[in-house]
Every structure is written in C-alpha cells, then in structure tokens.
Amino acid sequence: MVYYKPGTQAQYLSGVVTVLGKKHEPKPDFLNDKLESAYAWYIELRGKLISRARAEAIRRGESVKDAAEPIRKILLMAICVYLFSLGTTEAMFERCMLLVLYHSIGRAGEVSTMNFDLLSWCPDTESLWTKWQQTKTGRAAPVSYHADATSWKKCMLHAFACYFVTTTGLDSTDGWLFPSLAGLTSEGGAASKTNRLLEKLVGKVLGLTKKHTSHGLRAGAADDLAFDNNVNIVSLILRGDWDWTGECQVFGYLTKKKHVASGGKSLADYPNPGMHASAPRLTSIVDGADEEDAGLLDRFVKQLFKFAPAIFMVGLVGFRDAMVAVLLMYFDDMVNEVPDPKKNCVLRKMKDSIHRSGGTSSDLSRWGTIIREEFQLRNAVNLSKAPQDDNRLAGAVVKLTENLIAQKETAKKQEAHNEKQEEHIKKQEEHIKLQAEHIKLQAEHIKLQAE
C-alpha cells in the first residue's frame, strides 16, 4: 500500500476546500479576519489531519517530512567536472546554473530572474554583485560571487566565463542571463529543469542519487556554511536571506554586504572568509608586459568576448577581465584534466581566439602561470589555514622574497648601467671639448697661414 506524506494529504484536503470556496461564498481568503471564523472548522480539521498522518507515518517507520538531500561541495564539484567534460554549450549553461543556485543559496525558481541590469563589479571586494530576487517573499537581497580559492571545477567566475564565451545571442534576450529560464518563475520551470538535469546525471556522477533535487543545492550550501567554523551565524543568515528579527534597518544598511561577502568567500573555499580575497587579474600580465604582449592580450580578450553581450565592453569590464583571468589561470589544468580537450567548446574557443589574435596556445599557458603566481601571492595569508602545517604560506613568502631579491638585483644592474652611461657621457663631453679645442687650434692655424 502507498501512503502519502502528511503534507500531501493536507494539500488534497485544501484542494477540495478551494474548489468549494470558488462555488460558494465566502471565498477562502484567510488574510481577511472577517472570513477567518467561517473557516475555523477547516483550520482545525487540517491541523488534526496533519497530526494524525504524522503519527501514523512514525508508527510505520517512515520519515514525517521529505527533507532535501544536501548537495555539498565535493558532490557539486563532481557534477561540475562531469558537465564540463561533456564540452557542449548546453553543459556550460547547466554547470553555470547549478553553481549560481549553490553560491546564492537560492531556490531553483529564482535563477530565472537574473538580469544583466542587476549585475555590478565591485573593485573593493573584487567580486560580482547582483540582486537575488525572490518570487516567494517579494524581496531582492544582495549576493556576491567570488573566484574560487583552490580550483576551477566549482569556481563561479570560471563557470560564468565558460557560459558567456560559448553562448551567442544574449544581447537580444531583454537582458536575461538565462533566456531559456525567463518567464518560468510562476510555473516552477527552473526547478523542474534543475530536477530533470540532476535525475539525468544519476548513475553518471558518483554519489548522486534520485533523492537529490534542486533544493539540495540550497541545503548543501547552507550546510557548508554552517560547518565552517570561520563563518559566523550572522553571515549564514544574511547570505541565505532568511527572516531574522534581530536584523534592524541600520544593521542591514551598514554591514549586510560585508556578511554576505563573507559567506560567499566561504562557499568559494577561502579558509579565512573574514579577510579580503583578491580575484585573478589581467593586470598581472599587463604591468610587466611589453607593448607587443599587451596588444596581443587586448586582442585576445576582445576576440574571446566578440559574441558576448555588449555590456562586457562598457559597464562590466572589471567582471569580464576577472573572468578572462580565471580562464587563463586554469588553462593548463583544464587541458590536463579534460578527457578530450579538442572537443571542449571552451578550450576550442580560447585557442581559436588566441590564434586569430596572432598568438599561440603557449601564450595562454604563459599568461596563466603569471596570473596564478600573483593570485597566490596576493591571497597568501587568506589561503593558509594554519602556517605551521600548511606550506602554501611558506611557499608564497619564498616566492615573494625571490621577487624582491630579483627586483633588487634588477635595480642594482640598472644602477650600474646608469653609472656606466654617466661615465660614457662624461667621456663624450671630454671628447667634444677636445674636438672644440682642436677646431679652435685649426682656426688659429688657418688664420696664421692667411696672414
């Protein structure tokens, strides 16, 4: 025999009452105090039905409520790696959608409301910000997306980059980030699409089961934050935008973004989310490049985003540059870890763009190494959980020391070169003086001969 969950049984009763209410007055409007008394019998009956159904479910050894099976970091990473390895444009969209839901701690239906007009790049936090609009509550909460501290596999900026550089036609979609989901907010279409995707991946991704649904991304992100000892409860609440009576207007106005960003950095695997996290930068290349290399990089970026929305060339340049930097930083990793790099649409796009710009794949690898080294240096302290048992900080300090020594050596060589130039100039001045005296003597000699 099949038994329905207590909540499902209550829904069937509510459906009957709703149908009757449409045919007979008063209508079932429980927000109206005058009508509430007319449905007191229904409220009491529904409460007793749920209570009885729960008791019976407990006696049968069943769960009283279907709780979402969390999709936490390790499982999410496995899903993302599988989707990226497919190498298709559709897979890049699906990976991006799942990561947006995880990092936003959001419900699947809300991903369909994301719009380019709501995006902004914050130079202070070096992260992307948007308003996460919730159809269920009618609120719009700030949320940030950060570069991952350790890997490309579940990096939000990397997923955005892969999606934007391989998807065409976004300029003609009224600003929607995910046009195929737009308009599905009231139909649960985005949630259904996510559930169908997860169901399709069962058996292909180790650890993913039929119990995992779209809500598991929200539950998994909440669990990951809750079990991070460096994230306080305030950051957890504000990142998920749960109702909290302790939040006053002034508190929310002054510190909300700080706590939201802290939660975002934790989801991006920064061991110390309260500290500043620096995103990968293209300036790592530009600052030390000659004019030819800087020109090649500029052409590559424009070619890579040639078919992306025009806003990346004007209002979201910082976001665009960070995405390109992330792609370059992980270029070698992607090539080495993807089963068939030649069939991957992202890697093909990157190689095609650099060739059309007059460069080679080795330029991508070289740039990526430069970006990675500076990224690790700028985040040296934040990337270390404990200096005594984590050699990343020591390695970064050694690298920084090497750079300082190299700079000093360069300065010494430049100083010695300048001294040699000064000596050369002095010798030239002396030579000019001697030449002037020689010319003067010649002039006097000519004068004497003339006399």
Automatic annotation (TrEMBL):
UniProt keyword annotation of Transmembrane helix present: yes
Transmembrane portions of the chain: 74-93
Gene Ontology MF terms in the entry: DNA binding
Record key words, sorted: DNA recombination, Membrane, Transmembrane, Transmembrane helix
InterPro entries: DNA_brk_join_enz, Integrase-like_cat_sf
GO terms classed as biological process: DNA integration; DNA recombination
Protein's name according to its UniProt entry: Uncharacterized protein
Organism: Grammatophora oceanica
